[in-house]
Design goal:
The complex is a heterodimer of chains A (377) and B (331). Chain A has 377 residues and is an alpha/beta fold. Chain A folds into two domains: 317 residues, Rossmann fold, CATH 3.40.50.970; 30 residues. In chain A, 44% of the residues lie in helices and 8% in strands. In chain A, strand 2, helix 8 and strand 3 form a beta-alpha-beta unit. The termini of chain B are far apart. Chains A and B meet through helix 7 and helix 8 of A and helix 3, helix 4 and helix 5 of B. The complex binds thiamine diphosphate (TPP) and magnesium ion. Thiamine diphosphate binds next to strand 2 and strand 4 of chain A.
């Protein structure tokens, strides 16, 4: 919907000083008139079959990962798990479009993308297990810590992308957030900075319809979240977030554009979380089962599997192979998460500063003495 | 601005400008960003001439959004740069609080030391310049209550240079509070000496009767009070903390033990403030050396007043001497 149609597109009158003149015609920035889809279209035939199979396999493994993490949470092995069940297409595609030198800036719901990036599941889940804030080395995989304060990671992605561009490195930063996060001030500031700095950054908004219980209609009156891009002078894209091929395609285009100096893009992916917000949430208080059922019919894994079978790209052997990989991961997660984590109380004082302050040294000695006394009892 | 000879008399503003220039010359990873820091040189001219010398990218005029500025600086630091952020005024740093508290202060800890953030956040603070509301806050209590941040504040031009160089060189984030009413105070500056490490208090005036413990904008007031106290028969020491975090307990203890009486002076509000922390620490550590309770002379617990009333709010010589008079001299 061309929201800015009513804006004058006539040339700027000659008496208007240049600084206040509208700088671009918004039309080329507007999002796709309807969400981009690939799975139901002929364009699917042009895609590399190896890529399609890889995407499928990752969806299968991703779904199993979500299920296993949810089960582990019910068993008390994780403190909390914000599941991305139903959103795996976004998670998988986000991890896939990143090159090794690129950076991912995930939110709390994006552990699957983090694992897809190559981070060990055990390390990716320490935050949610509760044994350490960030269990992985962000520099090793170029993956920022999982971010919980909504949208606050977005400006970090912009700054990193800006610094990379200054260094002449072909690095792109991908920041992930939810629909609710787009209401935060940091989201606005990040998009504005990104556009002004022409930073090589891509913002992926997974619009799953809810911020905990609050539906999108109470979050924003914009025609789409992708429309928000226009106000910043940035391209907005709208994609079916459960069509993994489409998400991959749209993200890849945005990444390429950023990498080649074309600046940032805001991508809105329409999706749905099939699970509750977290294990602690009761989703029946704010949404009906008919809605969930409808989205189950539009399940990203189901859509992909059907299409690939229609095209003759997926047979039972390949499907079995994918589920075997999924079971292997799940078995490993069970084995590793059932073991008790090793915890060091003295680590509380590490890494507050490069060198502990005198005050921290005193407190460290206090805890050490308490622990020693405890050990003697 | 001309290149400085090693020693000359400069204002604090010039000393800060020289520190930024020297740091940028020595280390290409030092980048400045903020509002109006480029062509204008900042509203207080602290970045004067730096965009011209180092280019607009290294002295970047950003959009007007403090959280965005600090958040962007975080990403830049993650990529290996050493950002120095200018907040235009104390009260206008508040929009960046979430980035400061949730990310700047915690990133090293959250990542087990893998992502240190060597960011310096410069904030002109405090009153006494006749500023209208939102231009005179003393916000140090918010920052010192946030583990992971260093908080320093110079009171002299020489310290402004040395502490800013040390802050930029620090691998930890530093909130660098610039007492804006001292921007035009002058001192001799020698830029050839070694950079003073963060975390050391300095005795500005020796004395045997009692010590005034202070920092930043209140230092000149305390020195004046100590001068005036001579006529009353008191020989007051004046201790300049310079670094609020880390806190120099050792020096504070030494001085307090040697004189036995202490008054903490700062212009920010008293309740839950830095003075409360200092009084508690001194009582805990020096109780048997104290001849009187530690007293505080601070701003009142009110929103910063209108400029025509601010002199009633700010600790002045008389209020400090009144506190000194209450230190149980008869005992
Ligand atoms: C600044 C901030 N405010 C509130 C919260 C609490 N909170 C956690 S998730 C959430 C909903 C976020 O919704 P959305 O952005 O749509 O992401 P989703 O959870 O749907 O993936 C809220 C309110 C938070 N984490 N950060
Ligand atoms: Mg949501």
């Amino acid at each position: 919907m061309p929201v800015l149609e009513h804006r004058p597109t006539a040339p700027v009158p000659s008496w208007l000083p240049g600084a206040t003149a509208p700088r671009t015609d918004p039309a080329p920035l507007l999002p796709d008139p309807s969400p981009v889809r690939m799975l139901g279209t002929d364009e699917l035939k042009d895609q590399d079959p190896a890529l399609l199979l890889d995407l499928y396999r990752r969806l299968v493994v991703g779904r199993r990962y979500n299920q296993q993490a949810t089960t582990l949470t019910r068993q008390g092995r994780l403190a909390v798990y914000p599941s991305s069940t139903g959103q795996e297409a976004c998670q998988v595609a986000a991890a896939m479009v990143l090159r090794q030198d690129d950076w991912l800036f995930p939110s709390y719901r994006d552990t699957l993308a983090v694992v897809g990036r190559g981070v060990d599941p055990l390390e990716a889940l320490t935050l949610l297990r509760g044994n350490a804030h960030t269990g992985y080395d962000p520099l090793a995989t170029r993956t920022a810590p999982l971010c919980t304060p909504l949208a606050t990671q977005a400006p970090h992605a912009v700054g990193l992308a800006h610094a990379a561009r200054l260094a002449g490195d072909p690095v792109v930063a991908l920041a992930m957030m939810g629909d609710g996060g787009t209401s935060e001030g940091d989201f606005h500031e990040a998009l504005n900075f990104a556009a002004v700095l022409n930073a090589p950054v891509v913002f992926l908004v997974q619009n799953n319809g809810y911020a905990i219980s609050v539906p999108l209609a109470k979050q924003s009156a914009a025609p789409s979240l992708a429309h928000k891009a226009v106000g910043y002078g940035m391209r907005g894209r709208l994609v079916d977030g459960n069509d993994v091929v489409a998400v991959h395609q749209v993200l890849a285009e945005a990444m390429e554009q950023a990498r080649t100096g074309g600046g940032p893009t805001l991508v809105e992916a329409l999706t749905y979380r099939l699970d509750a917000h977290t294990n602690a949430d009761d989703a029946t208080r704010y949404r009906g089962s008919d809605e969930v059922t409808a989205w189950q019919e539009h399940d990203p894994l189901l859509l992909m599997e059907r299409r690939l079978r229609d095209l003759g790209l997926l047979d039972d052997a390949a499907a079995a192979e994918a589920s075997e990989a999924a079971e292997t991961l799940a078995a490993r997660m069970r084995a590793e998460f059932h073991a008790e984590p090793v915890l060091d109380p003295m680590s509380l004082f590490q890494h507050v500063y490069a060198h502990p302050t005198p005050q921290l040294l005193e407190q460290q000695h206090q805890l050490a003495a308490e622990l020693a006394a405890e050990a003697e009892r | 601005m001309t290149t400085m000879t090693p020693t000359r008399t400069v204002t604090m503003a010039q000393a800060l400008n020289t520190a930024l220039r020297d740091a940028m010359r020595e280390d290409a990873s030092v980048h400045l960003l903020g509002e109006d820091v480029g062509r204008l040189g900042g509203v207080f001219r602290i970045t004067d001439g730096l965009a011209a010398e180092f280019g607009e990218q290294r002295c970047l005029d950003t959009p007007l959004a403090e959280a965005g500025i600090l958040g962007t600086a975080i990403g830049m630091a993650m990529y290996g740069l050493r950002p120095v952020v200018e907040m235009q005024f104390d009260a206008f740093a508040y929009p960046a609080m979430e980035q400061l508290i949730s990310h700047v202060a915690k990133m090293r800890n959250r990542t087990a030391g893998r992502l240190p953030l060597p960011i310096t956040v410069r904030i002109p603070y405090g009153g006494g310049i006749g500023g209208v509301e939102h231009h005179s806050d003393s916000s140090e209590a918010y920052y010192v209550a946030t583990p992971g941040l260093h908080v320093v504040t110079p009171a002299t031009a020489a310290d402004a240079y040395g502490l800013l160089r040390a802050s930029i060189a620090s691998d930890d984030p530093v909130v660098f509070l610039e007492p804006k009413r001292l921007y035009w105070s002058k001192a001799d500056l020698d830029t050839t000496g070694a950079v003073e490490p963060i975390g050391r208090a300095v005795l500005r005036r020796p004395g045997r009767s009692a010590v005034l413990i202070t920092y930043g904008p209140s230092l000149p007031v305390c020195l004046e009070a100590a001068e005036a106290a001579v006529a009353e028969g008191w020989d007051l020491a004046v201790l300049d903390l310079r670094s609020l975090v880390p806190f120099d307990d050792a020096t504070v203890e030494n001085v307090v033990r040697s004189v036995g009486r202490a008054v903490v002076v700062h212009e920010s509000t008293g309740f839950g403030g830095m003075g409360a922390e200092i009084a508690a620490r001194v009582s805990e550590r020096c109780f048997h050396h104290l001849a009187a309770p530690v007293l505080r002379v601070t701003g009142f617990d009110i929103p910063y007043p209108a400029p025509m009333l601010e002199h009633h709010h700010l600790p002045g010589v008389d209020r400090i001497l009144d506190a000194v008079a209450k230190l149980q001299w008869e005992d």
